[in-house]
Amino acid sequence: METIALTISDETLRDGEQQVGLYLDPATKQALAHLIAATGVHQIALMPAVHEMEAQLVKQLAVQGLGLKLAASTMMSQAYIDQSQDCGVSQIILFHAVSDRLMFLRDPELSAHPAYREKTADNVSAADIQAVRQRMLAAVLTHLRYAAERGLKVWFAAEDASRADFGFLVDCVNTFGPYLEQFLLCDTVGALMPEKAYIWIHDLLACTDGTALSVHFHNDRGLALENTIQAVLAGASGISGTFNGIGERSGNAPLEQVLNGLRLRFGWQVEGIDYKALDEVTRYMDQHSFRPNPPYSAQSRWCETGIHLSSMRRDRNSYAPFADGPPEVWFGKFSGASNFQYLFEQQLKRPLSRDRYEQLRVAVKQLAIQEQRSFSVSEILALIEQGLI
């Protein structure tokens, strides 16, 4: 058996919990965090900005001795960077879209301009796209420098990297690399195929300046496991996934399967990993029925994450992996005002005020945490009619 160096980043408690209907209470998260830490993974990601309860959990885990393993997934804002560090972490995962499709939807200048409100990246000029790219590079650099000045170790999660322009992605890696521990390449809607995954990582390594490249692949087409293994074969220095493969839509690459698959197929044992401890994590999750939705299932079309629905209001292709049928909107801990905006404007054609959307967001988030569940459209409409939210 050959021992290899591979950085393992766990997203079970962050991306994993974004699976609609899967609620992890703080006690469960604490227990899982310690079980996951015992496996020897190098990083455990959580997101303090989701809710004050989540921030308190990160602080508690740091006090309990997991501080060096914890990483705070952090939105591109100095306030969120400060919040993450105040929770006791020494490393953060800053994230931003790198595909033209998603960057266009979030560009602060064009999104506020009336002439662009009904457009997507498919029908704007090359000059507009170039301007969007330059603004993104400048914004990310500003926040990378700020995090570095605060003494934080930084990973950059390149959202939707698998649909990004290759040349621009190379520019991102080379520009951000000096500030990073790892550049995390995300296949956000499961667009990659195994053959492409290998070539993509191989070519990126050949065209960039030595920045460590990790991968975070989604399982919409049932290929996240093989795509991740192919990325390792091509030279990726790290992998990111979840135990049991839980996560939004059809989940993520299952870490225990990737690690055992590398050992079984190639005789590669990852340095520092306790393979028996992997079984303890999956056993605990099986006892609690924490399992992913199968690819192509009806449940894999459920969407609760606010930032995703905000984008899908303007561009159906932003986060919906398949063209046949719209996503099914759900409401819960990860919802935003955009969930209600999508429901009332896109589906019901009964627009409400922005203030009302915000009121509903706050109310449903609190109710979801209190009842430890998510809510369907019919349940939400009944709650509104009854005056309960």
From TrEMBL:
<comment type="similarity">
    <text>Belongs to the alpha-IPM synthase/homocitrate synthase family.</text>
</comment>
<feature type="domain" description="Pyruvate carboxyltransferase">
    <location>
        <begin position="6"/>
        <end position="279"/>
    </location>
</feature>
<dbReference type="Pfam" id="PF00682">
    <property type="entry name" value="HMGL-like"/>
</dbReference>
<dbReference type="InterPro" id="IPR002034">
    <property type="entry name" value="AIPM/Hcit_synth_CS"/>
</dbReference>
<dbReference type="GO" id="GO:0019752">
    <property type="term" value="P:carboxylic acid metabolic process"/>
</dbReference>
<keyword id="KW-0808">Transferase</keyword>
<protein>
    <submittedName>
        <fullName>2-isopropylmalate synthase</fullName>
    </submittedName>
</protein>
<dbReference type="InterPro" id="IPR000891">
    <property type="entry name" value="PYR_CT"/>
</dbReference>
<dbReference type="InterPro" id="IPR013785">
    <property type="entry name" value="Aldolase_TIM"/>
</dbReference>
<dbReference type="GO" id="GO:0046912">
    <property type="term" value="F:acyltransferase activity, acyl groups converted into alkyl on transfer"/>
</dbReference>
